[in-house]
Amino acid sequence: MNKYAERINRLRAKFEDSGIEALYINSVANVSYFTGKKGNDCSLYITADEAWIITDFRYEELAQSMSEWLSFYETGAGRNTLSFIESREERKIGIERSYLPLDLWLRFTAIEGKEFIPVHGLVEKLRDVKDAEELELIARAAKIGCETFDYILGFIKPGMTEKELATEIEYQMKKRGAEGLSFDTIAISGAKTSMPHGVPSDKKIETGDFVTMDYGCLYGGYCSDMTRTVAVGQPTQEMKDVYNIVLKAQLNACEKIHAGLTGIECDALARDVIAEAGYGDRFGHSLGHGVGLFIHEGPSFNQRYDAPIPADSVVSIEPGIYLPGKFGVRIEDLAIIKESGIINLVDSKKELIIL
């Protein structure tokens, strides 16, 4: 039995507790999880003893390559997802409440004799814990990010625009083997660094600016994520002080996080350091989020996540301080969580770099 069939069996074990006989899956990432391929224009239908991929002629060869663990239902010529579901004997069918379009929900619920049950997190909880191959792909994506950072330190110059910097980051990642971006690259400077998700613009980088770069790439379908803040020219003492507070918080979290702590406890390892320094109200986001097929998935380091963090999950560690109209600092690593601590996938320098 291959790993995809094993994943499907693990999913089936959750059906009874969820009160369903089958699950219709249309999330791109969740389809990818059970196929190993990009899940665009495909959906899955999984029962206690069958598993189907539903797609059209364009993906016939792709579907047939999965025949070891998935049957193929070809849509077209009057055959579609609704006709497939109508033909099935299962009555209680789970649907992914976070992903099913309203139009399809309305069409599903018009089918007589079926009960559609919105479910949440069945597949995502499986995805929280990564296997060895997934961890290797994420590590490779992270390595591309680190190599790009090393290069970009020699590229940043006063007078270039944020857009030019962002474009170069993306080019260098792809040059090193990235198949795409995890998310839109953040490359911002000066007062704009106080915006956690600022958008690169035609603003020119100036001497004395902080520059924050938050970026990631896809490798083998899996994401990476890292952030570094550097100074271009001599920073002020206040900039140095704030940077060192964020660095202290990030290092404390990296040193003490381990599997079994709750997300709340992990978040506090950095948040408390920042609060004690008097900047608690300027750290408004969570400490970290899971990374995998999606750039934001479970588990999470935040003030609400009271579940234990499982071993072999991959989570970002990214405290920040943001002072509106002045500057901001964020430092982010990506880590595999283990019982004994973390394996940090980002080895780029974290101490303040002055270019």
Topology:
Blueprint: H1 3-12, H2 15-18, E1 22-25, H3 28-35, E2 43-47, E3 51-55, H4 60-64, E4 71-74, H5 81-87, E5 92-96, H6 102-109, E6 115-119, H7 122-128, H8 132-152, H9 162-175, E7 180-181, E8 186-189, E9 209-215, E10 217-219, E11 222-223, E12 226-232, H10 237-256, H11 263-276, E13 288-290, E14 297-301, E15 314-317, E16 320-323, E17 327-330, E18 333-338, E19 341-344
Parallel strand pairs: 1-5, 3-4, 5-6
Antiparallel strand pairs: 1-2, 2-3, 7-10, 8-9, 9-12, 10-11, 13-14, 15-18, 16-17, 18-19
Helix pairs in contact: 8-9, 10-11
Shape: elongated
Whole-number count of domains: 2
> Which class do the helix and strand fractions yield?
alpha+beta
Number of strands: 19
Question: CATH superfamily name of the largest domain?
Answer: Creatinase/methionine aminopeptidase superfamily
How many helices? The count is: 11
Instruction: Identify the CATH class of the largest domain.
Output: Alpha Beta
CATH architecture of the largest domain: Alpha-Beta Complex
CATH-defined fold name of the largest domain: Creatine Amidinohydrolase
Order of helices and strands: HHEHEEHEHEHEHHHEEEEEEHHEEEEEEE
Average of the residue pLDDT scores: 96
- Ends distance: 53 Å
Strand content: 15-25%
Largest sheet: 6 strands, mixed
Helical amount among residues, as a percent range? Answer: 25-40%
